[in-house]
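User: Here's a protein and a ligand (calcium ion). What would the complex look like?
Assistant: Let me lay out the input and then the predicted complex.
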Amino acid sequence: MTSILIVEDEERISTFVEKGLAAAGYTPTVVTSGLDAVDYLMTGSFDLVLLDVGLPGIDGFEVLTRVRASGSSVPIIMLTARSSVEDTVAGLDGGANDYLPKPFKFDELVARVRLRLRESGQQVTVEQVLQHGDLSLDLRTRRITVGEVSMDLSAREFGLAEQFLRHPEQVLSREQLLSRVWGFDFDPGSNVVDVYVRYLRGKIGADRIETVRGMGYRLV
Ligand code: CA
């Protein structure tokens, strides 16, 4: 099953793309705002993203920035009516994998989707497991292994574990974890990070994630 997130606020286009991708054997999901897109992408459960530039709330470039800042390398194809050179350059500089100006033919879209999925398949084999000491996190199965014991993680636990394993021995502040894992305007006073760190400690062992008083958390 190949899951594709379609981020598009024009129903005419999202319906057309969704039906076409479903008919081509993919599993499409449509969201219509930038904030929803970021939230969905933080679950890490999509294989590719079709991202419109002009969106209500935060635009496609801002979605791109936030998703890449979270460490995600999901392939992203930008869709836009603004087929100017500046937008193409901004998108590719911002970490987009491809760029498709509207209006496009469905066949062209599917050809790009296939190409980018094939490329990302190669990337995934390069980096599918993050490791630190006897901890390893499989980015595809989303399971964490401690020594010989392997277990499932919830989406948020996985997001946190991924941040810690990408930055081992570094102090990560609550604000960094909140913006990278939850990804949007959560109340900075929220204790959701502490709650999920506790869940993760419950799974991998309390002493592996150190509390650095007044600063945040560190994977040791
Ligand atoms: Ca739009």
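Summary: The CA atoms of residues 49 and 76 lie 5 Å apart.
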